[in-house]
């Protein structure tokens, strides 16, 4: 089998390692089958699509809607590299699962708009599949309604031209979409369980997702959530595209 390429952007080692471990576990992959590149630490290497079964993008604290003057040099570089790769992936209709930051990467292509209109607080919320989502080869592995972990400052306000809406929540119209047949992006996190969510809450408590004095209540709410379905996406993505 050709490996999958995992692109991460988290600078905190413990959180970055937890995200990668979750992708391995829920994808049913060994380390040699999911090759990680940490873009916050190194430039994107040359990517020959023939070398890979597919691409998985993780999340992180970067937001494409951040004011340009407040973005670091690293963030500007990462955004430029991912946009160039995303355009190639869409043109080739190459298998992609972009989780969280994938929305920012693919949601701004070809007329798409990502801004702060539909942010949602850290926690779990009900997600509903559209009819296209139910019929979709990847998202269709999930029930029509399910709870998912999330937490985001930005979201898609207008889909890229030709994109197919697959899932929504009551407070965020675009939680998953598909471009072509094989390029997917989700706003919710398919890789998260409670342990990893709490780890991220603690790591990003000063990043503006909630007030610092709300830390314990946010953690308590996260620990009380029952989220069982979204991790199925990773195994299904591997099942569909491993070659």
Structure description:
- The protein has 243 residues and is an alpha/beta fold.
- It has seven helices and eleven strands.
- The protein has a single domain, classed as Class I glutamine amidotransferase (GATase) domain (Rossmann fold, 3-Layer(aba) Sandwich).
- The strands form two sheets. The protein has a nine-stranded mixed β-sheet, with helices on both faces. A two-stranded antiparallel sheet has the order 5-8.
- It is globular.
- One of its GO terms (molecular function) is transferase activity.
Count of DSSP H/I helices: 7
Please report the first level of CATH classification, the CATH class.
Answer: Alpha Beta
Q: What's the rounded overall pLDDT mean?
A: 97
What spatial form do the alpha-carbon principal axes imply? Answer: globular
User: Which superfamily, in CATH terms, is the homologous superfamily?
Assistant: Class I glutamine amidotransferase (GATase) domain
What's the CATH topology name?
A: Rossmann fold
Q: How large is the radius of gyration?
A: 16 Å
- Contiguous low-pLDDT stretches (5 residues minimum) are none
How far apart lie the N and C ends? 5 Å
Biggest pleated sheet? 9 strands, mixed
Number of distinct beta strands: 11
Class per helix and strand makeup: alpha/beta
What is the percentage of strand-forming residues? 15-25%
What count of domains describes the coordinates?
1
Strand order of the largest sheet: 2-1-3-4-11-10-9-6-7
CATH-scheme architecture: 3-Layer(aba) Sandwich
- Share of helix, binned: 25-40%
GO cellular component, one term: cytosol
Protein name: Glutamine amidotransferase
Keywords: Glutamine amidotransferase, Transferase
Domain Glutamine amidotransferase: 46-192
